[in-house]
Amino acid sequence: MPDTSQAPKTFPAPKDQRLRDLADCIRFLSMDAVQQAKSGHPGMPMGMADIAAVLFSEFLKFDAGDPHWFDRDRFVISNGHGSMLLYSLLYLTGYKDMTIDEIKRFRQIDSRTAGHPEYRHATGIETTTGPLGQGIANSVGLALGERIMNASFGDNLVNHHTYVFLGDGCLMEGISHEAISLAGHLKLGKLIAFWDDNSISIDGATSLAESDDHPARFRAANWHVQQIDGHDTDAIRAAIIEAQKVTDRPSMIACKTIIGFGFPTRAGTQKAHSDAPGEDEIAGARKILGWTSPPFEIPQTLLSDWRKIGAKGESARMAWAIRLQTASPEKRDDFQRRMKGELPSGWRAAIAAAKQELLGSEKDLATRQASGIVLNHLFDAIPELLGGSADLTPSNNTKAKNQVEIKPGEYGGSYIHYGVREHGMAAAMNGLALHGGLVPYGGTFLTFSDYCRPAIRLATIMEVRSIFVMTHDSIGLGEDGPTHQPIEHLSALRAIPRLAVYRPGDPIETAECWEAIMDTPRQAALIALSRQPMPLLRRDPTDENRSARGAYVLQEAEGGERQLTILASGSELHLAVEARSVLQNEGIRTAVISMPCRLLFEKQDAAYKRSVLGETRARVAVEAAVQDSWDRYLGVDGVFVGMHEFGASGKIDDVYNKFDITTDAVIRAGREATGKQS
């Protein structure tokens, strides 16, 4: 028998029958789609439908006929399992690619209506919100992006809100603490969150696992907080009006709702959360809510009302378009360029200038230092670059010399202090990238990519240009020891499909990697940089970007056909170069291959890859990390010089010697691979 212990005996009568009818359109599309799929989460769409009806019909600034209008309000569902609420709204308001057939194909292969909202699957989906908490953190980035762009282009071109629905699960996830704290600190007054306070989780009542006072928590984080009945449309309206008046704090509206509103036995219980309701439950809901239409059918009068809601923003959009056209030519051209995701003409000159500065250096440089020099040049050439770090700015070298810091309520700068919030930073960066007009990059240590990984993965799924700057990329960070020395991280990150992981081997490669990153607008990228100084291996003053193909022959074998191939990346590349010199003198014809980015190399044609890797089966790979991501290039006869255990605390040279990652080790491996022991 269904658990009805918490099911409401009655449902509150509507304050406004029209709004209740509009909300019921969402409810019945959602339950019908979940029932047909025999899978899904009907509870949240049914519980939050009244709030959505008020927000979309009276407040949200959008035009379904032009979904990409830049100055639209952004709407995000952080509790993405309730995706049918969003899909229902997109269909009802008239988004062309969200048809009733797509609603019927909910959760089916190749449909636009995936189990969780997927960015670019359909217009109107602002971000991919799968793991709980990502959406609220994305929304912080969206709201911050609006304020930064507003500071550059003014109210006439950029003046919109970000609205986010979030649930109990979002607030349990640790990332929500990071995101909420950052938003409150930065005084993001254009961010309004609606908490679906239904007290139910998959396991049962939320009291099984938490007893937090969430309104108090938000207040402590400098948010404006209201608490309302989430089914009282008058209260919903009044709360949104009040929230919009608050300009110096983000707003949270705690909406007490009934999960599965309308279900006769499952409403208010865990059964409403994620189970297909069954035909009897749906029939009961139709009776309780007075809904007489068959499955997937919306009464024409209500559909007409919803389509009018979808079109009501057209006049605002057209007025905005006029303001854009009448803006000064310089401002208009810059704005339109940014909207297209195009970089300023001549930006590559900044890379060339950085290379010249690096070539002129008379000392060894850590690639984190080289990256800082490149950013000094890039920022002056690309004003939309938006930097930041998770409280490691001096270590990450992520702040260009001319960047101005963003402060609470002051958004005219281009550098963000994210605090020790690696996960929140990465997810907010995704929101900034999604917003448009900005190119965000943010720094931390490579070992803390574990803290960022869910957001990095989502950036890659969405194909947005979020740039993750990860320094201290090996045991070469030395004294901080094994907790801070990334061992398995490069292999783990390279395993993420479509993520471009760069590990430059000298200052010139660092500049080339940054050029490749900036040259690829729809690709998430991570650049791993050293703490320790490295020699300048590339002294050829060429405009060619050799790193852009992912791997290349740094030094070819001399004296005849290649006998040995040494593959390396990053701070171990110079060990390969030093070892080659000895091996060549011993008569082992040796080539050194630099592999700064596997993803780019794998995109090359077979002929190029063969020319780089060579035909010999005698191969050595060297990297101060685990072997896993090298196996495809080493083959069964290759030898790996690297880490097989966690690191140790000590001076950099001592740590490398302890784990036998040295020039001598590479020489011995080369002899072993070729069977020519000295």
UniProtKB/TrEMBL annotation:
**Record carries keyword Metal-binding:** yes
Instruction: Identify one Gene Ontology CC term for this UniProt entry.
Output: cytosol
Give UniProt keywords alphabetically. Calcium, Calvin cycle, Magnesium, Metal-binding, Thiamine pyrophosphate, Transferase
Tell me its cofactors: Mg(2+); Co(2+); thiamine diphosphate; Ca(2+)
- Entry EC number(s): 2.2.1.1
**Hey, where's the site called Important for catalytic activity on this chain?**
41, 273
Query: Which enzyme type, at the first EC level?
Result: transferase
Write down the Pfam families for this protein, in alphabetical order: Transket_pyr, Transketolase_C_1, Transketolase_N
- Tagged with keyword Signal: no
Q: Which InterPro entries does this chain map to?
A: THDP-binding, Transketo_C/PFOR_II, Transketolase-like_C_2, Transketolase-like_Pyr-bd, Transketolase_bac-like, Transketolase_BS, Transketolase_CS, Transketolase_fam
| Superkingdom, taxonomy of origin | Bacteria
Binding-site list for Mg(2+): 168, 198, 200
For substrate, which residues are the binding ones?
41, 273, 368, 395, 472, 480, 484, 531
Residues crossing the lipid bilayer are none
Q: Which residues bind thiamine diphosphate?
A: 81, 130-132, 169, 198, 273, 448
Substrates-to-products reaction catalysed: D-sedoheptulose 7-phosphate + D-glyceraldehyde 3-phosphate = aldehydo-D-ribose 5-phosphate + D-xylulose 5-phosphate
The residue ranges of the Transketolase-like pyrimidine-binding domain are 365-536
> What is the recorded function of this protein according to its Swiss-Prot or TrEMBL entry?
Catalyzes the transfer of a two-carbon ketol group from a ketose donor to an aldose acceptor, via a covalent intermediate with the cofactor thiamine pyrophosphate.
Q: How does it assemble?
A: Homodimer.
Q: What family is it from?
A: Belongs to the transketolase family.
Q: What is this protein called?
A: Transketolase
Origin organism is Rhizobium pisi
